[in-house]
Specification:
With 312 residues, the protein is of the alpha+beta class. It is built from nine helices and twelve strands. Strands 1-2-3-5-4 form a five-stranded antiparallel sheet, sandwiched between helices. It has a three-stranded antiparallel sheet with strand order 6-8-9, with helices on one face. The chain starts with 11 loop residues before the first helix and ends with a helix.
């Protein structure tokens, strides 16, 4: 687990000097599962300072490069601020640091239904980017999918019933995917409400490009459905419809793709279920969250119920 950086561990004068900032002040930000972020206000403006506790230099440089690339290609996100020497990251005490322009706004959970079409449009916009665009070179492939190593761990889970459910669900998904291959697109991989800023002007900006990769756009849309189209652990048809309507405004789905989308939503839910179980029961056991993964079983059941209702 990353050792998070605290406010009193940051040499603010040194940071300010690297970026040419004056009269700087720092305030911790809530959230962040892997890194430490702070609101940096200065005479030069407001910024988000992130200590990339969970990265090495190479992965930090890739994250900064890809974040800057999608920003310059028109996706509404935050802009990376280079240090005075032109580098997109710098280091302090051996840890990579990235500075981004501050986006005035807030996170709203759940994201209000009237804003879901815009979230869908942004995702479609991302999927339309050419993978060979400047700055997107070297994107990993399928970072959100479970690796062979992770799949091999499932039979070892102490919760045998959950392991059996997860294995069956993933087998069902893989069988469907084998019959309908799609070209990989630039995918966000984690379009959940806590990665969406509702700006003060009412528009949306998407944050956190940690899981950006080349992957099936329907899986990415399915992950967004898990993140944005549920309430109380069940899929809400009205929310899904709003998200997909916005997506289709830029990237219409074929009948075949529309038919397979529910399975990709299930696939995304299985991925989330795996990570919740593995994190809270294997890597960092936490009794208070030991059953957190079971919410995804309830969610998958609701996806199937909505699908059956739509077919009746």
């Amino acid at each position: 687990m990353a050792t998070y950086t605290k406010l009193d561990q940051i040499d603010l004068p040194a940071v300010s000097e690297r970026y040419g900032l004056r009269e700087s002040q720092l305030e911790p930000l809530k959230g962040g599962a892997a890194n430490s972020s702070f609101h940096l206000s200065s005479a030069s403006g407001d910024f988000t300072l992130t200590i990339l506790d969970n990265h090495d230099i190479v992965s930090a440089e890739s994250l900064a490069m890809h974040t800057q690339a999608v920003y310059r290609l028109g996706v509404p996100t935050t802009e990376v601020v280079p240090a005075l020497d032109g580098s997109l990251i710098t280091t302090f005490d051996g840890r990579p640091v990235i500075l981004k322009k501050w986006i005035p706004g807030d996170v709203q959970q759940p994201l209000p239904i009237p804003l879901l079409p815009e979230a869908g449009r942004i995702l479609a916009q991302l999927h339309s980017l050419a993978p060979e665009s400047e700055g997107l070179g070297g994107l990993p492939v399928g970072t959100r999918r479970l690796s062979a190593e992770q799949l091999n761990v499932i039979p070892q889970f102490a919760d045998r019933e959950f392991a059996a459910w997860l294995t069956t669900c993933l087998k069902r998904v893989r069988s469907a995917e084998a019959e309908s291959e799609r070209s990989p697109k630039v995918a966000h991989g984690d379009l959940f409400a806590d990665n969406v800023i509702v700006r003060d002007d009412g528009a949306l900006s998407v944050l956190d490009w940690e899981t950006v990769s080349l992957d099936d756009p329907l899986l990415d849309l399915g992950m967004a459905a898990v993140g944005l189209a549920q309430e109380d652990d069940v899929l809400v048809p009205e929310r899904l419809s709003a998200l997909v309507t916005g997506y289709q405004a830029l990237a219409p789905l074929s009948e075949a793709d529309a038919a397979v989308l529910p399975l990709e939503i299930e696939h995304a839910a299985c991925i989330i279920a795996f990570h919740r179980y593995y994190r809270h029961n294997v890597r960092f056991p936490d009794p208070s969250k030991s059953t957190y993964h079971l919410k995804m079983i309830k969610f998958v059941e609701s996806v199937r119920a909505v699908t059956r209702h739509g077919q009746s």
